[in-house]
Amino acid sequence: MLKQLLTAVRITVISIVIFGFVYPALIWGIGRVTWPNQAGGSYVRAHGRIVGSRIIGQLWTRPQDFAGRPSAAGKDGYDPTATGASNDGPDSSALLARVRASLKALRSANPNAAQGIPIDLLTASGSGIDPDITPAAAYYQAPRVARARHLPVATVRRLIVAQTHQRTLGILGEPRVNVLELNLALDRLH
Amino acid sequence: MTLTGWLQAVLLFLVVLALTKPLGTYMHAVFSGKRTWLSPVFAPVERIIYRFSGVREDDEMPWYIYAFAMSAFSLVGFAYLYTLLLTQAWLPLNPQHFPNLSPGLAWNTAISFLTNTNWQFYSGESTLSYLSQMAGLGWHMFVSAGVGIAVAIAVVRGIARSGRSTLGNFWVDITRVCLYVLLPLAAVFALVLMAQGVPQNFNAYHTVTTLEGRAQTITGGPMASQEAIKELGTNGGGFVNANSASPNENPTPLTNFLEILAILAIAAGLTYTYGLMVGDTRQGWALFSAMATLFWIGFAVIYHAEAAGNPLMHQLGVHGGNMEGKETRFGIAGSALFAEATTATSCGAVNAMMDSFMPIGGLVPMVNMQIGEVVFGGVGSGLYGMIEFVVLTVFIAGLMVGRTPEFLGKKIERREVQLAILAILITPILVLVPTAIAVAFPAGTATLGNTGPHGFSEILYAFSSSNANNGSAFAGLGGNRFYYAATGIAMFFGRFFEMIPLLALAGCLAGKRAAPAGAGTFSTSSATFVFLLLGTILIVGALTFLPADALGPIADGLLLHSGRTF
Amino acid sequence: MQSGGTLRRRSAARPLVETAILKNSLLEALCKLDPRTQVRNPVMFIVEVGAVVTTGFLLADLIHRAGTPGFDAAISAWLWFTVLFANFAEAVAEGRGKAQAENLRRTKSDTIAHRRNAAGTYEDVAASSLRKGDTVRVSVGEIVPGDGEIIEGAATIDESAITGESAPVVREAGGDRSAVTGGTRVLSDSIVVTIATNPGESFLDRMIALVEGAQRQKTPNEIALSILLSALTIIFVVVVATLYAFSQYAGSTPSIVILVALLVCLIPTTIGGLLSAIGIAGMDRVMQRNVLATSGRAVEAAGDVDTLLLDKTGTITLGNRSASDIIVAAGADRTQVLQAALLSSLADETPEGRSIVTLARHALGAQAPSEPPEGTQFVPFSAYTRMSGVDLQSGSKIRKGAPDSVIAWCKEFHAPDLALMPEVERVARRGETPLLLAIDGSPVGLIALKDILKPQMSRRFARLRAMGIRTVMITGDNPLTAAAIAGEAGVDDFLAEATPEAKMNLIKREQAAGRLVAMTGDGTNDAPALAQADVGVAMNSGTQAAKEAANMIDLDSDPTKLIEIVEIGKQLLMTRGALTTFSIANDVAKYFAILPAIFIAAYPQMNALNIMHLATPQSAILSAVIFNALIIIALIPLALRGVRYEPRGAAVALRTNVLIYGVGGLIVPFIGIKLIDMLLQALHLG
């Protein structure tokens, strides 16, 4: 029995070395060589500085930018150091109150919207840093953005089409638009 | 529900199916000590580990030594992680200078990782140093998965062996499974994840100024290596709080698909390993079909509930499926599939928030855990959990053909029934009793994120998840000392009070002589048996929880449809 | 005893239970409410505790003039009924055995024994004081005072008290027919018997204890099943107890009476209530076939048997073979050979011998001598020489017997002519037994003895095969003959030229391969094999040693009885499995009846789960409780009779039983509860 206990300690020590240190270091080493950008955090540069990470959503409030989804991460949302969701149940009055408020705000900000409000713009994501919105959510905001940027709506729509990521292999996931990339593309139009 | 949604599920299932045989065959070779194509790389490492640890490869252990070695290893692992979490502030690889964890949280987290539960009362990105993550949690993710698989293999050895009293060598089993199975798969998977965008660095968090001029702190860390073993070992402990919903851990629909695949692959492969070990691969496929049936039922129900959406939202003129707590890139199908996979197994990773699922969508994960995660299940634990139900079914069904029940030629008698039932009995006790205590005392209801039946669901889910060593949560429930202690206890007993009786059962069966099958013995690989097995799982396993579930998600659903809110 | 032959198999018209037994059982069911008795059945004990609790609440209602006394009274009453019904089932099963025990006990009472004392004289003592090793004398008209072995003398004995068979049997010292059983009557002559059992251990005692179920030991499978049922009970106690807290969280405190009702409905009362009745009834069915089992374990083991060893003679074939052919060797004189065959068999009084005489006489016609010539010496058959024959006054010696023995005998004269040997083989291959006939060392002819198969045996073996049981024929014949007979009879395998050691080795070999072996036997040399076999059935006509080694004794001494015992064993297990499945499957409907009724107070929307549309919550709960109680009564006949048994493969049996008792168990309570609810409404009781 004592022998087994000693073995337990020894196996623990050597396996920590292998699985706790060698393995992550090996992956890190390979990553530095082969995918330095992804391994480093997929930073996006614009205007000569880092403006964020491609995979991390941001808070957008200006009318000329496409907005992302509501976020429950951190105090103001979109805080990568406090990822998380609202965790409101489907029958929670807090959820419904929030949705009502969002509805009101979206309606007043997008008076010219052609269609109903897509549900992703009213619901908080799981991570609170969802970088994407659905194409429908982008089209919904297109008239507002076009107007704020003094662009024809058709141009903005074309941009959305170009920025839409289709399902992987035609099956996996959902079509989506990366908000940061879309807004950067908009900026480049000027 | 959409066709592409279903196609995604079908594609996943087909890939799991296709991997089952090759992976199962490979694992069988590993556990029988045969040379594999990876031996040139790992055999020297394996020898070094044995020499360093003083392990003799051919030292066979009877069940109680096996159980003791397993417990001793778990105990040492617990002490190590607990100490690490309490001292991380003074140790290297802590660029954020996170303080030491509180003893309560450290205790809960250490038990949680020791038991392969990975319950997240901590939020990784704001609590844990890189050292705690990779050398603490990450190491546990390998070995706690390894322990599960080793125990499952020992249990199957007991079934397969005839007239011997030993079950193999725990140290050899755990070394081989971690080295030959988990490590190579994790390494390959980590590289794919990294290529898709999962970070792997040791940088300090980087604060950037966004286009709108706001500051945003981008996190980092050795995430890809951790994410890979998190799914492969059905661990589920997120590097960050939002777990696989976070684009850091799960950036694309492809990574989502692969993560679900990684959660299921080893558990599915083990059914084939089991078939090979008992000398009849149909036995493995029978378990596979029972699991697959439940998997599809579960997925269909979640997908349907989530796709139908929230009638309260529909009343506001907002249409579409339930997207609260879900990520755009995964959509409803990708979230439903992940939820089914992660609770069918003991993974507990989440890519969407169960707390915000529709009540029936949240009921399925809960039931998955309440029946003991036998739908593929945790790596290893799914197989031995299913074997409990098989023994029980064999006993009931065996009587119906007029013989003392036999499982693969071995008589299921008093002692076997006793041990199997002990392992099954522990589940309702460890879920229902703590839930009752929690709802009866203020400490239990103080940290609820929701009220009404949904609040009850949060508590019920927490204990279903802890006992089943899942680790997913209705995350509205906050941690306090009551929950640190209560879930810790549920996790501990849920793991070891299932493993040890099962090892004893295996020891019992190993010593028995197998009688050859004949026309008088019924086959445990027939369709009738699979049907009965499903009946036993649903009636003995799931119905036990019906009253509790009725007051939680079922009441929640009925109230919601009548328009009531909380 | 003589008149009824209580132990004889009942005619088909016999009612399942006599009215007298029913009356006694009602009383017995009440006595069994004693908690000290009830606690032996944990499931029903919980129901009794529940009944006490609800009755307590009823009393409180009545004292405080509050609550729902009508409902509480109804629930309490039905809970008591549930316990009583289960007790009644057990009492009825025991009652049938007790009636038999009563008859047996009458036989046993006040027998006087004449015991030989140290001085060698006999003294009268009570039979009950005899101990193992005592020697007693039993004379004409007296009752044998205990089980034992005849050491002197021979007698005809009336065994009807034990076997129900009225034809007397002969028992004599030495050999395989030396055992006598206590309670039987000596009809002629006088015998001296060594008593083989101590008081209380005799055959009769064991039989009485067994049928009474007095110290009934639970069988291994029954224990395992009890553990399962107790565990389910614990689970449901936890479920219901925690439900109290859960309901309070939901905002309504459920009444304890309702929670007790739910608990009773969920725990496996159906199988829990009938479990011991099934076991007792199974033993009873064995008894009705005139087989005594020393334990329930043995009967259960019979259901598990994989290999059945059957003696050829008496089991597969009728005991006597008859001569079918007499073959004359080339060059021998036909008349001389036939006469030799006739002469050598004239003194042989066995049916075989007589059949040779008949055949030879028929062939010789007028030339047949009616009497053996003067001075003929008969040489009887012995197991050692395996030959018999005659020595004529002329000095000529005629022998007939097993070919190898006869050839060996011939070799004492000169090297024998082996021309007949191919013929010997041909006869053997036909499944007949060749007897070589030789005169003065020269083989002259061959007598073929044909075995007569018992009718319908091959069908029985096919049944056994369908059940998954392999039959092995044991015979002293040579392998060729054995193979032919085995083929004709349809057994799966045979052991030829069997010696006791070969038989023992066969059993050990089968057991080492993990198979359970059953065999029958009667001789002393069968005893070790009977003891080694998992199920050993001794013939009552056999020796005391065989009976002691066996775990069952067939009073009819019918070796094919083993097949029926196997069927009873299987039926016993099947009945338990079927009712367990049924009981567990029932829970689904009960949940749907009771849960909405409990939760409707907290959440009216829960009525959506009331898929049976039961009228009111009270009526729903009461209907479930009533159904739960009545189903026990409804299933008593099934428990006593056993589920329908058909010999068929396990796969088919499993599918059929799952369909009937599993799927049926899911559906029946939905219908039953709904009907009771409708009835309650019609009677304005709900």
Strand order of the largest sheet of chain C: 10-22-21-20-11-18-19
Largest sheet of chain C: 7 strands, mixed
How many H/I helical runs of chain B? Answer: 20
Please list the strands of the largest sheet of chain B in the order they lie side by side. 1-2
Return the average pLDDT of chain B rounded to an integer: 93
The Rg value of chain C, from CA coordinates, equals: 33 Å
- Largest interface, per-chain counts? A-B, 102 and 126 residues
Report strand % of chain C: 15-25%
Could you estimate the helical fraction of the residues of chain C in percent? 40-55%
* Assembly status: heterotrimer
Alpha-carbon Rg of chain B, integer: 23 Å
Counted beta strands of chain B: 4
Query: What is the average of the pLDDT values of chain C?
Result: 84
Query: Number of DSSP helices of chain C?
Result: 23
Q: Tell me the total number of β-strands of chain C.
A: 22
Gap from first CA to last CA of chain B: 28 Å
Class by SSE composition of chain C:
alpha+beta
Order of helices and strands of chain B: HHHHHHHEEHHHHHHHEEHHHHHH
Q: What percent of residues of chain B adopt helix (DSSP H or I)?
A: 55-70%
Helix/strand layout:
The complex is a heterotrimer of chains A (190), B (566) and C (686).
Chain A: H1 2-34, H2 36-40, E1 43-46, E2 49-53, H3 93-109, E3 132-133, H4 135-149, H5 153-163, E4 164-165, E5 176-178, H6 179-189
Antiparallel strand pairs in A: 1-2, 3-5, 4-5
Helix pairs in contact in A: 4-5, 5-6
Chain B: H1 3-31, H2 39-53, H3 63-87, H4 103-114, H5 124-127, H6 130-160, H7 170-196, E1 206-209, E2 215-218, H8 223-232, H9 253-277, H10 281-308, H11 311-315, H12 331-344, H13 359-370, H14 381-400, E3 406-407, E4 410-411, H15 414-440, H16 442-445, H17 452-467, H18 481-510, H19 527-542, H20 546-561
Antiparallel strand pairs in B: 1-2, 3-4
Chain C: H1 19-31, H2 35-38, H3 42-64, H4 69-108, E1 112-116, E2 122-126, E3 135-138, E4 148-152, E5 154-158, H5 160-163, E6 169-172, E7 179-180, E8 185-186, E9 191-195, H6 203-212, H7 220-250, H8 256-266, H9 269-288, E10 291-293, H10 296-304, E11 307-311, H11 312-316, E12 322-328, H12 334-346, H13 351-364, E13 377-379, E14 387-391, E15 397-401, H14 403-411, H15 421-429, E16 432-439, E17 442-450, H16 457-467, E18 470-474, H17 479-489, E19 493-495, H18 500-512, E20 517-521, H19 527-532, E21 535-539, H20 544-549, E22 552-554, H21 561-599, H22 617-641, H23 650-682
Parallel strand pairs in C: 11-18, 11-20, 18-19, 20-21, 21-22
Antiparallel strand pairs in C: 1-2, 1-3, 3-9, 4-7, 4-9, 5-6, 5-8, 10-22, 12-17, 13-14, 14-15, 15-16, 16-17
Helix pairs in contact in C: 1-4, 3-4, 3-8, 4-6, 4-8, 4-9, 4-22, 7-8, 8-21, 8-22, 9-21, 9-22, 10-21, 12-13, 15-17, 21-22, 21-23, 22-23
